[in-house]
Write a structure and sequence with these properties.
This is Nucleoside hydrolase. Helices cover about 40% and strands about 20% of the residues. Helix 1 packs across helix 13 (about 300-310) and helix 4 (about 125-135) crosses helix 7 (about 170-175). It has helices at about 10-20, 40-55, 100-110, 125-135, 140, 165-170, 170-175, 190-195, 200-210, 210-220, 220-230, 240-250, 300-310, and strands at about 1-5, 25-35, 60-65, 115-120, 140-150, 185, 255-265, 275, 290-300. The chain has a single domain (about 1-310), classed as Inosine-uridine Nucleoside N-ribohydrolase, Chain A. The longest helix is centred in the first third of the chain and has 14 residues, at about 40-55. Bound molecules: beta-D-ribofuranose and calcium ion (CA).
């Protein structure tokens, strides 16, 4: 599979990149950085450092994209520490970012190989929305768009109604869901259901003592502490890397449904909420077209196995 990852590189974004670099059959063709978790230039350094740690320095270009959301001001995520890497203090990578803008890189790569490139969008959707506004043909030329964001009509992680990626740029999310892409959506609801590693799984990874399992141990430290305070046990959550694992191996999906996904852009309390509903609502409403497949349950065992393979 030929893949572009659009990322706000921090914590779990980096394990997703490791999966894409290390899983046989996957070619990570480019990384595009988007506004999100931590200050923009730090995210670029985190992406470059991750590529270097994985042994792919100079082989995967990194492009800089949108530095702020479309309408509302940027807000950092507090999940991953100030540097997004739990203070792991990785050396500055030798590779430097490209000069071409991420939006143009996405358009160029997709239009050069229509129907061949998948995009994994694991950040606010600003870059993808700007790309499809500039070149609407990419909606049909991207083979598949795998999105991590929103909830399945459930509780979010940044507000009770919203997940971070859609909350930060709901206008961009709305544009992307209305653009005609072939979308699979992996939500925060799925994250809490299928992506968690419990204490025994974490011990198994730490016991591997490989350079990449050590990278995982260090970079996941702050989110694990936050999760322990919030959920009462030392779990680790993997919204982005589960989405990547599903993209690389859709057999992980145990249950999914076709749905209409609409993003709330105006609600005072519900801004960034993803309404996930069937195409026909009743006679007060027009019929809506299905615009995404929403993953409900994925195999935690299969995901855990893929992560261990990537770290080995
Ligand atoms: C998403 O937001 C970010 O904090 C994570 O990187 C992930 O993409 C989870 O809400
Ligand atoms: Ca992310």
């Amino acid at each position: 599979m030929r893949l572009i990852i659009d990322t706000d590189t921090a914590g779990d974004d980096t394990y997703s990149m490791l999966l894409a670099m290390k899983t046989p059959g996957s070619t990570l063709e480019a990384v595009t950085v988007c506004v999100g978790n931590v200050p923009f230039d730090q995210q670029v350094e985190n992406a470059l450092a991750t590529i270097e740690v994985a042994g792919f320095s100079g082989k995967i270009p990194v492009y800089c994209g949108a530095r702020r959301p479309m309408v509302k001001p940027w807000e950092p995520s507090t999940m991953h520490g100030n540097d997004g890497m739990s203070g792991a203090n990785l050396p500055i990578a030798r590779q430097r970012p490209e000069t071409l803008h991420a939006v143009d890189a996405i358009i160029e790569k997709v239009m050069a190989a229509p129907g061949e490139i998948d995009i994994l969008a694991q950040a606010p959707l600003t870059n993808i929305a700007l790309a499809v506004m500039k070149e609407p043909r990419i909606a049909k030329a991207v083979r598949h768009l795998w999105i991590m964001g929103g909830t399945d009509n459930s509780v979010g992680n940044i507000t009770p109604c919203a997940e971070y990626n859609f909350f930060i740029d709901p206008e961009a999310a709305r544009i992307v869901f209305e653009a005609g892409f072939n979308i699979t959506l992996s939500t925060w609801t799925l994250t809490m259901r299928s992506s968690l590693f419990e204490a025994d799984q974490l011990e198994e990874i730490f016991a591997m003592q490989t350079p990449l399992s050590e990278f995982y141990r260090k970079v996941s430290a702050v989110p694990r502490q936050t999760a322990e305070a919030r959920y009462g046990r030392p779990i680790s959550t993997h919204p982005d890397s589960l989405t990547c694992a599903i993209a690389l191996n859709p057999d992980l999906i145990e249950s999914a449904r076709d749905a209409v996904v609409r993003i709330e852009t105006m609600g005072e309390i519900t801004r960034g909420f993803s309404a996930v509903h069937p195409p026909v609502l009743g006679n007060r409403w027009p019929d809506f077209k299905v615009n995404a497949r929403v993953v409900e349950v994925a195999s935690n065992d299969g995901f855990f196995w893929m992560m261990k393979q990537a770290f080995s």
